[in-house]
TrEMBL record:
GO terms for cellular component: plasma membrane. The keyword Zinc does not apply. This is Phage shock protein C, PspC. Keywords: Cell membrane, Membrane, Transmembrane, Transmembrane helix.
Length: 65
């Protein structure tokens, strides 16, 4: 069973982009680039707010059993 989690090994800020990359089997760097590109048309605040909420909601890799 596939689970979404924040990575510990591929962490830059909180591990959200690394976890999303591992979940969808894509390079986490691509997820980070997509997040940065989304900040341009949608302004910075909504993307940062979504990242903050994801940090709270998505469990850490070490917490997943």
């Amino acid at each position: 069973m596939k689970r979404l989690y924040r990575t510990v090994s591929d962490r830059r800020i909180a591990g959200v982009c690394g976890g999303i990359g591992h979940y969808f089997n894509i390079d986490p760097t691509m997820v980070r680039i997509i997040a940065l590109v989304l900040m341009i048309p949608f302004a910075i605040f909504p993307v940062v707010l979504a990242y903050f909420i994801a940090t709270i909601i998505i469990p850490n890799e070490t917490d997943v059993i």
